[in-house]
Amino acid sequence: MLQESTGREKDGAILLRNMALYSIVHALVDFTCAAVILSKATAVLLSEDSYVFMIILYNIIAFALQAPLGYLVDKLRKPVQAALLSYFFLAAGVLLRDIPQISVCFLGLGNALYHLGGGIVTLNLKPGKALLPGLYVAPGAAGLFLGTIAGRAGYVFDYQIIIMLIAAGIMTVVIKPPQIYTKSGEGISYDKFELIILLLFLSVGVRGYAGMALNYPWKADLVLLTAFTSAVVLGKALGGFLGDKLGWTRVSVSGLVIASLLLFFGFQATYLGIAGILLFNMTMPITLTAMANMLPGREGFAFGLTTMALSIGALPVFFFGKAVNLGKWSTALTVLILALVLYEGLKIYFKSREGYGFEEN
After folding, report:
1. Which residues, in sequence order, are CB contacts of 74 under 8 Å at separation 6+?
2. 3-state DSSP of the chain
């Protein structure tokens, strides 16, 4: 009995240390990329067209390339080493920010490798559960928000960031990771496997488009934008917790249906829009974990598929700008389409798992 208790305490310590490390550093990584790329100094060095191209290039490297990089990390079974390598690339991106074309490539690679390394570790802390992936991803939105403000105000904090990246590297080496690539769900044979993957991919892509194209006029106010970002962070953190407790389909799909109404009225009523954003973002940890469960032992590739879907969904906004922004009616319709696609994907997903003793709450 004492041995079992000691084992549980040891597992709990591993979980807490890894979650604290990777969640906090996630905020640092996204802060770093935003502060450098969106800084005044970077914008001055480039023409307007070159600056837009650089941001698109960064998003392609940082997000669209995560799938092939994730496949490689899975193949090598080196997620912790991927995180360590990311710190080197991020530091290089900061130090070379006076050469933005090179800096953006280093930052993109660093961001991609960190997301994969931390994502794989987090998905393996409690395999099959959405809580921890949600807690891992959520701080990234806060880091991106703060980095954007700092960069546009002219503050990048070069040497402070380098010191924190070195500290993150030391902690990453010191902290023991969980067992990784156990392939606990490998025996599950999914009916309509490709269709489930496609529906999950589409749902993430539509969410990526809606998240980028929803442009409330009141977001120009810094206080309201802070509340908006806080809702994004809280939604991602709560989505996994509530999904595991109450059922993924119930939480994500009903949340999206309610969100469609709140986001519709959010153009006039700020607090309703913020509440809608919270519910809208609760789907993130659920789709990520479902994708990872579909591809046991290939969590990096699964994580990369979701970020690739997000980047594809965001492309229309990058290329066409305000022309593809969503109004209140198109916002509500887009979110309802997302709810339908996700409902169909999760319905087939859970139906396939029933015969293996897995049932949704």
Report:
1. 120, 181, 297, 298, 299, 300, 301
2. CHHHHHHHHHHHHHHHHHHHHHHHHHHHHHHHHHHHHCCHHHHHHCCHHHHHHHHHHHHHHHHHCHHHHHHHHHHHCCHHHHHHHHHHHHHHHHHCCCCHHHHHHHHHHHHHHHHHHHHHHHHCCCCCCCHHHHHHHHHHHHHHHHHHHHHHCCCCCHHHHHHHHHHHHHHHHHCCCCCCCCCCCCCCCCCCHHHHHHHHHHHHHHHHHHHHHECCHHHHCHHHHHHHHHHHHHHHHHHHHHHHHHCHHHHHHHHHHHHHHHHHHCCCCHHHHHHHHHHHHHHHHHHHHHHHHHCCCCHHHHHHHHHHHHHHHHHHHHHHHHHHCECHHHHHHHHHHHHHHHHHHHHHHHHHHHHHCCCCC
pLDDT digits (tens, 9 = 90+) for 257-307: 999 999 999 999 999 999 999 999 999 999 999 999 999 999 999 999 999
Token pair of 31, please? 């802060």
Question: Rounded to an integer, what distance in angstroms lies between the CA atom of residue 291 and that of residue 306?
Answer: 8
Q: Which two tokens stand for residue 154?
A: 């002219």
Angle formed at CA 197 by CA 295 and CA 67, multiple of 5 degrees: 65
Please name each of the domains of the chain with its CATH number. 2-174 (1.20.1250), 193-356 (1.20.1250.20)
If pLDDT is split at 50, 70 and 90, which confidence band does 352 have? confident
Structure tokens at 260: 């469609």
Query: For residues 235 and 286, is the Cβ–Cβ distance under 8 A?
Result: no
Q: Tell me: the pLDDT tens digits for 228-260?
A: 999 999 999 999 999 999 999 999 999 999 999
